[in-house]
Amino acid sequence: MAEATRTKRFRIDQGKIDRAMQLLGTRTEAETIEVALDLVVFGPTLAEGVRAMKGAGLVDVFATGSS
Asked: Which of 14, 46, 56, 66 has the fewest CB atoms within 10 Å, counting from its CB?
């Protein structure tokens, strides 16, 4: 199902947009806002997953060591 999009007009600090674009590696302001909102919306799910993994005994498969 396609997400509904709407045209919006906001007053947003340009410095914040520029910094977010740099941090997120996005190319447009619209893409930057979309990615930032995705991160905010996904944040609680990510935090829940991290909490669920606490004490799971994960192994660093990328660790270097003698074989």
From this structure: 66
